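user: At home tonight, take the chain set out below, taking as long as you need, and be ready to discuss the fold:
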Amino acid sequence: MEETNQISLPRIGEAAPEFKAVTTQGDINFPADYKGSWVILFSHPADFTPVCTSEFMTFATMEDQFAQANCKLVGLSVDGLYSHIAWLRTIKEKIEYKGMKNVEVNFPLIEDITMEVAKKYGMIQPGESNTKAVRAVFVIDPKGIIRTVIYYPLSLGRNFDELYRVLLALQTADAFNVATPADWRPGDPVIVPPAGSCGTAKDRMEGKEEMKCYDWFFCTKEISEEKVLDTILKK
């Protein structure tokens, strides 16, 4: 029987696969070193490629914004450490894009020439490439649990406003025990989970809770942008 390559795809709700790696910021033990922080672990196909360059410049420019939301960034490609260092130096010294220049990447970029980490996270997908990681994004919570998984093909650069929105939405859902509707942004109404008992449902329909119910299964309530951001962001 012909052997087929099985791709391991970590799933939402599972513990993030563990690994130790060399990075541009020193050795890391993942996710143990990041306990207590949210993490965005993301892969890119290769150093010295234009789409990846635009992404790293954007992530580096937004790093403080993510940090205020208690989120750290960790990048990965299957290139070696010295290639990473040379590429990041070139970005800082030579590349200007959308008003960004002299951009220094301070978050770690993992060396993964053996593809060990990329394979653990399902970043190598043969239908796209056997030798390059797709543009994968894993949002991992402070307990080391995978909360969001997004994959992009090699040709498609990521939307970083959306990645930041995802991070805020996950934290809002956790902090206020709610869900966030389509296109939600801080300050928009949130979804209140369906009532778990007859008494709770009755309170809702009689208006005893501060929410708007269109039917028993669809209730929203207001949480101000200020309250959301005060809860999530570090001052």
